[in-house]
Design a protein that fits this description.
The complex is a heterodimer of chains A (186) and B (146). Chain A has 186 residues and is mostly helical. Chain A has two domains: 92 residues, Rna Polymerase Sigma Factor, Chain: A, CATH 1.10.1740.10; 79 residues, Winged helix-like DNA-binding domain superfamily/Winged helix DNA-binding domain (Arc Repressor Mutant, subunit A, Orthogonal Bundle). Chain A has eight helices and no strands. Chain B is elongated and about 60 Å long. Classes of the chains: A mainly alpha (186), B mainly alpha (146).
């Protein structure tokens, strides 16, 4: 039983059809859904579409929510993950990495410092995108989304040990790609 | 915790012990305090990678997107609970509240209902995004403006 779900009260209001509650839920969760979608899919536009679809499901399903069975945050990640899987399945597995496909966080012209930050961000995005899907998923859920190892493993339908193995392989690959000779600090 | 176990977890979760499984943090911290040379070196490597990972930014959502998300949800229909309101409530709303009641009653079709439903939910120009409060207070970590 999940006893302390910080979203339960707000979700109940959403389930009663309160537009203000939905607005608050969007403010609370949209950034996290975008974070998840953009890092898994590599594209802002697709991440926004996933977030939109996820909130349609929140709105429709909120009234059916049974408090205590799961954390809403976990359920929302499951919904968004499934939507991401659908899109990833639509891509060819051997599709080569396309630099332009994976957008930088901020395409606007930027001063030097901001430009460097954007370039670093884009380089990490490229490295993430080049990871095998399951490794990327593990890293995004655990590192960027801040889910516990148990939550991330459950979402991926794997054991915690398997999750840790995926994480270690992902980090090893990223270290080689990003750090290289060890002199290239962010 | 053995140094070997520490390194296994370090490889998976990185240098920030706040990202480690809760049950492992205290023994890991105790091991770190021993300042073993090999662990210190591996921690520095992991921290360098964390620094890179934290450099990956996801732009915060704009208000227009939030409005689209809200509109997309509310125009998909009312939540089942809201649409199961007793009829007598509908009658109360209908003459009194008119426009708002019409949206809840679900008896009007199409864009008219849509426009009413949206009226109350379109956020103001400056959507109030929650702060960056997380389980971690490190401002350098990108938690995507959560």
């Amino acid at each position: 039983m999940i006893e302390d779900d910080p979203d339960a009260e707000l979700l109940a209001r959403v389930g009663r059809g309160e537009p203000q509650a939905l607005r608050e839920m969007v403010a609370r969760k949209l950034p996290r859904l975008l974070s998840l979608g953009q890092r898994l899919l590599g594209q802002r536009g697709e991440a926004e579409e996933v977030a939109q679809e996820a909130f349609v499901r929140v709105w429709k399903q909120a009234a059916h929510w049974e408090p205590g069975r799961a954390r809403f945050e976990t359920w929302l990640h499951r919904v968004a993950l499934n939507l991401c899987y659908d899109r990833l399945r639509g891509r060819r597995d051997e599709e080569p990495y396309d630099e332009e496909r994976h957008e930088s966080a901020d395409p606007a012209p930027a001063p030097d410092q901001a430009l460097q930050a954007a370039q670093r961000s884009q380089r990490v995005a490229a490295a993430l995108a080049a990871l095998p899907a399951r490794q990327r998923e593990a890293l995004v859920l655990q590192y960027y989304q801040g889910l516990s190892n148990g939550e991330a493993a459950a979402l991926m339908d794997i054991s915690v040990e398997a999750l840790e193995s995926l994480l270690a392989r992902a980090r090893r690959t990223l270290r080689a790609r990003l750090l290289g000779d060890g002199k290239d600090e962010p | 915790m053995t140094p070997e176990r520490f390194l296994v977890l370090l490889d998976a979760y990185g240098a920030d012990l706040r990202r480690w499984p809760e049950s492992e943090r205290a023994p890991a911290r105790a091991l770190v305090e021993q300042d073993l040379p090999e662990l210190r070196r591996r921690l520095a490597e992991a921290a360098a990678l964390d620094g890179w990972l934290d450099a990956h930014e996801v732009a915060a959502p704009q208000d227009a997107l939030a409005r689209r998300v809200i509109a997309g949800a509310t125009t998909s229909g009312l939540p089942p609970a809201a649409s199961r309101r007793p009829r007598r409530h509908r009658r109360w709303w209908w003459p009194g509240a008119g426009l708002v009641g019409a949206g809840l009653a679900g008896t009007l079709a199409g864009a008219f209902v849509v426009s009413l439903a949206l009226r109350g939910v379109v956020p103001p120009p400056d959507m109030e995004w929650p702060g960056r409060a997380t389980a971690f207070s490190d401002p350098s970590a990108d938690w995507s403006e959560e």
